[in-house]
Amino acid sequence: MKIDFEKMGGLIPAIIQDSATSKVLMLGFMNEEAYAKTKETGMVTFFSRTKNRLWTKGETSGNFLKLVQMLVDCDNDTLLIKAIPAGPVCHTGKDTCFGEKNREDVMFLKFLQDFIEQRRQEMPEGSYTTSLFNKGVNRMAQKVGEEAVETVIEATNGTEEGFIYEASDLVYHLIVLLTSKGLRLEDLARELKKRHKG
């Protein structure tokens, strides 16, 4: 889709969302040049109406926004930019310009699966995740079983800290197995939602 900068007088709103937590971080404005620079550098760049120039978020604070994805709305005149913030986004030092804390820890699971999928595609040497993919689905499934047993042992005879540790290993290995089968955590969420009677 082509973005209609002219329709909006040369500037379009750009909503910035944390790609890991889905929190809305801020709103800025982009002209065609800022949009092109964001795509080229991978760092979110705006047109500053007060400074009357391009402004890369973080150029003075170091709290850059690393571009993950840009989406255009149905009218071709607003952007949704998913990014990874390098620190607090607001000039006041708050996580977001709306005063919210940018901590939705459960959303990290989605980010983790995206990272695991990237490992599956790139297969970098020396990565534990790469080694699991290299060993195949049988080994991945076996690891899920082993981690499930260790989780049960910690739940019944261990400590809370040990239980959390082993349960985290179980979830990680389950995500690797899901990814190897071309499935997502969202598929599990849909299945559980279907079963839920409310």
Question: Can you describe what's shown?
Answer:
The protein is of the alpha+beta class and 198 residues long. 43% of the residues lie in helices and 19% in strands. The protein contains six helices and six strands. The strands form two sheets. The chain has a four-stranded mixed sheet with strand order 2-1-6-5, with helices on one face. It has a two-stranded antiparallel sheet with strand order 3-4. A hairpin with a 4-residue loop joins strand 3 and strand 4 (53-56). Helix 2 (108-122) packs across helix 5 (160-180) and helix 4 (137-157) packs antiparallel against helix 5. The longest helix is centred in the last third of the chain and has 21 residues, at 137-157. The radius of gyration is 21 Å and the shape is elongated. The model has no long low-confidence stretch (mean pLDDT 94).
Characteristic terms for this protein:
two-stranded antiparallel ribbon; alpha+beta; elongated; 19% strand
